[in-house]
Amino acid sequence: MALRRELKNQGNWLFKYRSYVPLAVLVIGAGLIIYSEFNPEVSFIKETPYENIFEVFCIVVSLFGLYIRIITVGHTPVNTSGRNASKQIADTLNTTGMYSAVRHPLYLGNFFMWLGPTLLTGNFWFIIAFCLFYWVYYERIMYAEEQFLKKIFGKIYTDWAKNVPAFIPSFKNYKKPNLPFSWKKILKKEKNGFAAIFLLFTFLDITGELINGRTDFNYYLIGICILTSLLYLILKYLKWNTNLLNEEGR
Helices (H) and strands (E) in the chain — how many of each? Predict the structure, then answer.
């Protein structure tokens, strides 16, 4: 019981700071990418014919993670699957859509979003270390979250959970979402991740070119970064100053 209590307490603490603690991994990864510009031998992709293609692949991996979040959040009601940090919130239990395939689809999406820049390091051992860190880190968050849901929903939760895997999806019992897809909710809730992906990859691309004394920037990436950043600012304004993105029950 003491171990379970400790795991729950750790999970609740990590849940509160889940948007900030992984940034340390990102900083280390960015430092490693910059270091590999000076020492290409530490990366399995630097100075190979496939370097640019691999960069695109890494961006696609991150966008795939965002896609998982989008198809999850877009079908959920208010006060579920949120970005709240102060405490756990669940007015209802989501059991359809992505939640019928995996119990923690948002954390699965987060994994791929973080995996993209991690792969870009081209460092095999750092990639392994990231996967282990993510496993230990989110395992505790998921444990605390499941204890909370079990306390709130009881048998409804346990009956659902025993047939749905925690992290690796299984679509054999997939159920169509109860609610229609809401673009308004996506634009309001997922704008941060969309802008952050292109901002990060653009920063790393420009930094790498400058370190090598080149100015052969990826202007397509820079253009997308500018557009997504402008979109973020516009949506941020609309969220806080208008009701255009508000939708009853979502």
Answer: 9, 0
Tell me, what amino acid is at 12?
Answer: N
- SS3 of 134, please? helix
CA–CA distance, 149 with 248 (Å, rounded to integer): 24
Residue 246 tokens, joined: 């508000």
Measured distance CA(193)–CA(174) in Å, rounded? 26
What is each CA distance from 136 to 52, 68, 140, 158, in whole angstroms?
Answer: 32, 21, 7, 23
Task: Give the per-residue pLDDT at 178.
Answer: 92
Three-state secondary structure of 29-41 = HHHHHHHHHHCHH
- Across 186-205, b (16+ Cβ under 10 Å) vs e yields bbbbbbebbbbbbbbbbebb
Write out pLDDT tens, residues 45-80.
Answer: 988 999 999 999 999 999 999 999 999 999 999 877
Positions of E strands within the chain: none
Residue located via tokens 């007015």: 91
Q: Given the structure tokens 């993209």, which residue do they identify?
A: 116
Of 195, 27, 236, give the one whose Cα is nearest residue 117: 27
DSSP summary character for residue 185 = H
Average pLDDT, rounded, for the chain: 90
CA Rg, the chain, in Å? 20
Amino acid code (one letter) for 184: K
Q: What are phi and psi of 198, to 5 degrees?
A: -75, -30
Max Cα distance, the chain (Å): 62
Please work out, in degrees rounded to the nearest 5, the angle formed at the alpha carbon of residue 113 by the alpha carbons of 109 and 117. Answer: 160
